[in-house]
UniProtKB/TrEMBL annotation:
<keyword id="KW-0289">Folate biosynthesis</keyword>
<dbReference type="Pfam" id="PF01288">
    <property type="entry name" value="HPPK"/>
</dbReference>
<dbReference type="GO" id="GO:0046654">
    <property type="term" value="P:tetrahydrofolate biosynthetic process"/>
</dbReference>
<dbReference type="GO" id="GO:0003848">
    <property type="term" value="F:2-amino-4-hydroxy-6-hydroxymethyldihydropteridine diphosphokinase activity"/>
</dbReference>
<keyword id="KW-0418">Kinase</keyword>
<dbReference type="InterPro" id="IPR035907">
    <property type="entry name" value="Hppk_sf"/>
</dbReference>
<dbReference type="GO" id="GO:0016301">
    <property type="term" value="F:kinase activity"/>
</dbReference>
<dbReference type="GO" id="GO:0046656">
    <property type="term" value="P:folic acid biosynthetic process"/>
</dbReference>
<keyword id="KW-0547">Nucleotide-binding</keyword>
<dbReference type="GO" id="GO:0005524">
    <property type="term" value="F:ATP binding"/>
</dbReference>
<feature type="domain" description="7,8-dihydro-6-hydroxymethylpterin-pyrophosphokinase">
    <location>
        <begin position="5"/>
        <end position="133"/>
    </location>
</feature>
<protein>
    <recommendedName>
        <fullName>2-amino-4-hydroxy-6-hydroxymethyldihydropteridine diphosphokinase</fullName>
        <ecNumber>2.7.6.3</ecNumber>
    </recommendedName>
</protein>
<comment type="pathway">
    <text>Cofactor biosynthesis; tetrahydrofolate biosynthesis; 2-amino-4-hydroxy-6-hydroxymethyl-7,8-dihydropteridine diphosphate from 7,8-dihydroneopterin triphosphate: step 4/4.</text>
</comment>
<keyword id="KW-0067">ATP-binding</keyword>
<keyword id="KW-0808">Transferase</keyword>
<dbReference type="InterPro" id="IPR000550">
    <property type="entry name" value="Hppk"/>
</dbReference>
């Protein structure tokens, strides 16, 4: 089973309920087991789109799905929950991002692991550092805790 970290966010409807539903759907998938989840934090939206604040969190899962198959499963869950992709960084009832998959580095058109923006986003690093502070980022070769501290110092 692979150790994977996912980022979850929601800023439409019952934001906390949407996160809970996504976790429930992930955990009920036959090839995914939710191991740990962070606290939920409320954050300002990222990007240049006028929209409501987000509820964000990170979870750790174990899976025997390949990264591409996991992406398919995640996109399927988003679709089941009614996610509609209209604009980049726009409002959404659920967003599930694959942040880290073991120590793999993958760069495909539709899938980048580690997530390419992870180190720039406090709304990802804060909850991720809560559940995986010592996980080493495979590209930067630094712990999540260190990446979070570096971002805090630069803000």
């Amino acid at each position: 089973m692979a150790q994977v970290f996912l980022g979850l966010g929601s800023n439409i409807g019952n934001r906390v309920g949407n996160l809970d539903e996504a976790i429930e759907k992930l955990d009920s998938h036959e090839n995914i087991s939710v191991v740990r989840q962070s606290s939920i934090i409320e954050t300002e939206p990222y990007g240049h789109v006028e929209q409501d604040k987000f509820m964000n969190m990170c979870i750790e899962i174990n899976t025997n799905l390949s990264p591409v198959s996991l992406l398919d499963a995640v996109l399927d869950i988003e679709q089941q929950m009614g996610r509609v992709r209209i604009e980049t960084w726009g409002p959404r009832n659920i967003d599930i991002d694959i942040l880290l998959y073991e120590d793999l580095e993958i760069d495909l058109q539709d899938l980048q692991i580690p997530h390419g923006e992870l180190q720039k986003r406090m709304f990802v690093l804060e909850p991720l550092a809560e559940i995986a502070p010592n996980f080493i980022h495979p590209v930067f070769k630094e712990s999540i805790k260190t990446l979070k501290q570096r971002l805090e110092q630069s803000e």
